[in-house]
Amino acid sequence: MKHIYILLIFCFSFGSIIGQDHSVAREWNEELLAAIRNDFARPTVHARNLFHSSMLMYDAWALLDPTATTMFLGRNFGGFNVPFNGIQEPTDPEAAVHEAISYAMFRLLSHRFANSPNAEETLIALESRFLSYSYDPSFESTDYSDGSYAALGNYLAQQMIAFGLQDNANEQNEYENQFYEPVNEPLVLDLYEDNSEIDPNRWQPLAFEVFIDQSGNTFPTDVPDFLSPEWGQVTNFALDNNALEIFNVDGFDYYVFNNPGPPSYITEMSDPLDDPYKWGFALVASWSKHLDPADGVTIDISPASIGNIQSYPTNFAEYQQFYDFENGGDNGIGHAVNPATGLPYEPQMVPRGDYARVLAEFWADGPDSETPPGHWYTILNYVSDHPLLVKQLQGAGPVLEDLEWDVKLYILLGAAMHDSAVNTWGLKGYYDYIRPISALRYMASKGQSSDPTLQGYDPDGLPLLTGLTEIIEVGDPLAGDNNEHVGKCKVYAWKGPDYIDDPDTDVAGVDWILAERWWPYQRPTFVTPPFAGYISGHSTFSSAAAKILEMATGDPFFPGGMGTFDVAQNEFLVFEDGPSVDFTLQWATYKDASDQTSLSRIWGGIHPPIDDIPGRILGEGIGEDVFDKALDYFDGVLNVEEIEMKRYSMYPNPSSDEVFIEGLEHKPQHIQVLSIDGKLMEVSLDTHLNDNKIKLSVSALQAGIYFIQLTDPDNHIETLKLIKE
C-alpha cells in the first residue's frame, strides 16, 4: 500500500496530467516515465531513452516552426545520416505535429520497452494512449512522400531505432558489457565474511540471495553486473571532444570526458583522518548515526536555513570545512527572504532522523523509481504546471505555447541527462572506484588505524573516533558469547535490515554494531547501485538538471520562490516505518534541490564526499554546454558545426512582402529559395542596396515555410528559414 500512497502524494505535489489539459509531448512524456518505472532501474539506459524520445518530439515540432531547425531529421547526427527529402506543408500544422509525435513515440517506445520486465503492462498503456487519439496501430508505412505525417512519425522512429543500434550502447545485446571485468570478488552480504583481501580502491560486486532493484524488479542474477562501464563511448550531444581522454585498459578504450583526476586512494598516515579516503568514508559512517528520529535532534529544513551554497570545495582542507562531519549537512547559508513574496521563509523544525531518512529514499531514484533522470523530468513537469510560471525561454521574449515549451524543455533536459550519463559512467568505468559498504567493511576487517599500541592495529583500518568508531572490549554487549569480537571495531550507526521484520511497523534505529556489519540506508535486496562510485551520477544528473531549469526559466528560484514535496507520517518510507511526523521538503532554488540530492547520497550510505563534489561541478558545465548548443537549434542555425561562422541575419520574419538579409562581406555567389519539400522557387532579388545587404521580394510566394540558401565565393553555405505570411 505504501507505493500507491507515495505515487498519489507525488502526483499531487509534483503535478499530474489527470484533470489537466496538456500538450501531446507532455502526455507521451508521462507514458515514457510510466514505462521507466516498470522497467529495470537503469539510469544510463533511461537517460538515453529520455534524450532520444525528446529529440524526436522536438524534430516533429521544429520541422513546421518558422525559426527552429531539426536536430536529427535530415542531419548527420554523431556520424549517423538521417536522410530527409522534404514533405509538403500540411493544411492543419497542429494536427500534423500531433500525429507525427504520436506515431514516432508509439513506435520508439514500443521498441525500447519490448523486453521490459513489465512489458505487457507498458505496451498496453502505450497502445491505449495511441488509440485515444484515434490513430491506427496497423499503419506502419514510412513513406512520407505523399504528405503523410503519420508516415513521417514512423520514419522518425525507424531512423532513431537504427541509430540506437549503432551508437555504442550495445542495445541489441540488452546493453551488456563487452570488455569490463571486476577485479574484486563479490561481497556476500548476508554472511558477514572477512572483507580484508579486496583491492580497497576498486569496485566490488555484491552478492544477494535475491537482488531486487529500486523499481521492484527481480534481477535474473544474484550478482548484478556493473551497469554501463563502457558508456563513455555512447554518442553524446554536446560533450567537447577537446575535453576527451582515451585510456586503453586490457584492450578496451575508455572514453573519459572532462576528467577531474583520480579519487582519493587509501593512504597510510600518522593521523588516519589526514587521509582523505579514511576521512571521507568515516564521514559516511558518521552521518549514518543520524538515521534515528528518536535521538531528540531537530533541525530547520526550510530555505531559511538550508541551501544557498556560495562555492564548492576544491581541496581536502576545504572539503573538511564544507561538510559537517559530526552533525550532517553542508555550509549553505540559507536565504534571507523569498524573492517572490519579499517575506522571510518560515522555519520548519523536523527530526533530523526523519529528514535524513526521507532524503535517502526520495532522491534515490524518484518517489516511484523513475531513476534520477526521470525524477528531474517529474520536477520539470511540476514547474511547467505551476500557475506562477510564465513560459518564456530564458525568462524573456514571447510567451510560448505549451507544446513549444514542452518540446524545448524536454530536449534540453534530455540532452543534459544523457550527456551526464555518458560523461559520468565513462569516469565510473575507467576509475572503477569502491563504494562505502565495501570500503567500510574492508577497513573494519583490517582493524583500527589510529593507535599502533592498541589491539587490531592496521594502517588500512578504521580511524577511531569516540562515540563513532571504537574498539570492542571484554564485557561489551558486542563482545560475543566467547569474546570472539573483542579487539574488533564497532560503529555507532543505523543498525540495518537485520533489525526490521515488518517494514510497515519496525524502525531499525541507531546503536553500536559490529563495524564489519555496517549497512547503507537502503533496501536489503538492493543495498548499493551495481556500479562504481566515482563520480556520483546523482550529483551530476541533478546539477546539470538544475542548471537547465535555471537557464530555461531565466530564474534560479522555483516559481513562487519555493518548490515543495509533501511527506506523510508513517507512509513514505518503504523498508522501515516512517517518517514519525508530517513535513514538507522545500527548496528555494533548483540548485538547492540539486545540492540536497547530493547530501542524500551520503546519508543513504552510497557516496563519500570525493564522489560528490566533482559531479556537482561537472553537471553545471554539462548543463551550460547543452543549453548553448540547443539554443542554436532553437534559433534556426542549421549547420551547428559551423555556428561560429554564422554571418547573416534576416528581417522581418515572418514577412508578407519583402525581407532583408544583412551581414554579407561579399556578394553571394548563389542565392536560392527552396520550399519545405525542396522545390526551387523564383523570387525577385535586389543586391544593390549597399555592400552588405540584399533584399528579396517574397510577395509572389504562397504562405508557408521556405529555406533561403546563400553560397559565398568560398562555397560556404548558410541556410535561413523564412515564414511567408
Task: Give a structural overview.
The chain has 725 residues and is of the alpha+beta class. Among the domains are: 2-177 and 298-435 and 529-566 and 578-634, Vanadium-containing Chloroperoxidase, domain 2; 647-724, Immunoglobulins (Immunoglobulin-like), CATH 2.60.40. The chain is 34% helix and 13% strand. It has 15 helices and 21 strands. The strands form 8 sheets. The protein has a 4-stranded antiparallel sheet, with no helix packed on it. Strands 17-16-20-21 form a 4-stranded antiparallel sheet, with no helix packed on it. Strands 9-10-11 form a 3-stranded antiparallel sheet. A hairpin with a 2-residue loop joins strand 1 and strand 2 (80-81). Helix 14 (590-603) runs antiparallel to helix 15. The longest helix is centred in the middle third of the chain and has 30 residues, at 402-431. It is elongated, with a radius of gyration of 28 Å.
